[in-house]
Amino acid sequence: MNVASPCNVLMLYPLFTAESFWSFGESCKLMGVKRPTAPLGLITVAAMLPEDWTVRLIDCNTTSLGDDDLAWADVVFTGGMLPQQADTLRLIDQCRAAGKPVVVGGPDPTSSPHVYEKADFRVLGEAESVIDEFIAAWEGGARSGVFTAPKFQADVTTTPVPRFDLLRFEDYLYLGVQYSRGCPFTCEFCDIIELYGRVPRTKTAEQMFVELERLYQMGYRGHLDFVDDNFIGNKKSLRLFLPQLAEWQRAHGYPFELSTEASVNLADDPELLDLMGAANFFGIFVGIESPDPATLVAMRKKQNTRRNIAESIHKIYAAGMLVTAGFIVGFDNEKVSMAEAMIDFIEEAAIPVAMVGLLYALPNTQLTRRLAKEGRLHADHDLASTTGGDQCTGGINFDPVRPLRDILTDYRTVLERLYSPAAYASRVDKLMTLLDRSKQRHELAEGDIRSRVGAMETVHRVVTAIPDGRPLWQTFMNCAKRDTSSARIAVQMIAAYAHLGPFSRKVIDAIDARLAALDDETLIPVAATIDATVARHLA
């Protein structure tokens, strides 16, 4: 009979293989941090382990893994998302070479378990439902195994407070918490409903306030992101929680400025908008994907077709919350040369930070299953690049209906037009005329990492580093003259451009390389691929 003994657990958060839209490297440098956000999943799992187990966390994006760390560990936990796949596999090899058993889990191992066969243990699905089985097996002497959680059954009201003590707060621009899991919608390209289901499950208000109080007592102040798949997925629970959240914030002096992800139908609910404003939400990520209703219907995102989306975005601005949004190029139903429609929409809606990517068929989605059935899915569709690249540069991992040249040319046009300094500055300027910050707290909490660098200094550093960056300075001056509270938000948008401007240029260069490779195949002159007018003619 094996007697359970304390265990040293080394948790490794893998590198993101490539610089991506979301890495915000230059913007982080401006603020004196290393990464935008911290590994919430691993520190949540850490809190589920036995109390007599000792846990260390190394975020490989901020800290180097040393030989002494591996020597200390009895077992290594790792895993993450698709962009971390290559480094996860490297870490598995490194740990096994050092004789350390490896446990892998997270979204990508759950979606593509076959990719991670080298790991000693695979813990698949939501940890709450299966981690106890792993612990029992480990303490019983097992040194390999696969543990699969039943789908969508994890009781998040039992999820413990994450081990925030494992983090170095100063490494990150913001931290995250989770209130709900799952999304009620059925978007074809999305893996959320496959991983977490269509019935959003929420923590209790009491749970959330224990988490918030823990962060508050630990001295954290500043940007806090609710990492929910769709924050408004369970409106009934949210209507009860938000007034309590607003009161907690008021009683504590508004230590946190909040953001989250929500579907655009948030704009249909003035009560929720007011409640979120009162709780000090300042930013919402919205998946818009396409301005074309036929494309939205085909991708099963019908919730975006029942409204004027630009007007919906403006309603969110009127409630004091800026919108960052996701867009995708490469759907089967796109109209010929859709670039102009997407550009016009983003300009009309005044969305400065528009994450535009190429369609990528994620493992374990309705889209992937359909493409496989149609014989269009590439054989290596679930293998991430080991040499860099994300959905911006490596998308379209299937045979598209539209000519690939047309898709890439449209995509290039969108990026080039949206992320010129003048166009970006113009959207920021327009956003600031629409954003009503009267319901939100204007001042940053004392200790907020964003107050380290002054507004003038931040804007000056961005403008001097960006060719033709003068329009950004003019926008800042315009905003400062109109409304000093909005000017702070404008500074955040300008700081984001320190990353987005150069990154969009790198993506354009990568797309040019893909177009040049097509030229070599078809003997079409390169010039034809980079002239937007010719591209529209070809389409």
UniProtKB/TrEMBL annotation:
InterPro entries: BchE-like, Cobalamin-bd, DUF4070, Elp3/MiaA/NifB-like_rSAM, HpnP-like, Methyltransferase_Class_B, rSAM, rSAM_horseshoe. SMART domains: Elp3 (SM00729). Residues 167-390 form the Radical SAM core domain. GO terms for molecular function: catalytic activity; cobalamin binding; iron-sulfur cluster binding; metal ion binding. Its cofactor is [4Fe-4S] cluster. Transmembrane segments: none annotated. SUPFAM superfamilies: Radical SAM enzymes. It comes from the Bacteria. GO terms for cellular component: cytosol. Pfam families: B12-binding (PF02310), DUF4070 (PF13282), Radical_SAM (PF04055). Coiled coil: none annotated. Keywords: Iron, Iron-sulfur, Metal-binding, S-adenosyl-L-methionine. PANTHER family: ANAEROBIC MAGNESIUM-PROTOPORPHYRIN IX MONOMETHYL ESTER CYCLASE-RELATED, HYPOTHETICAL METHYLTRANSFERASE. This is B12-binding domain-containing radical SAM protein. It comes from Bradyrhizobium betae.
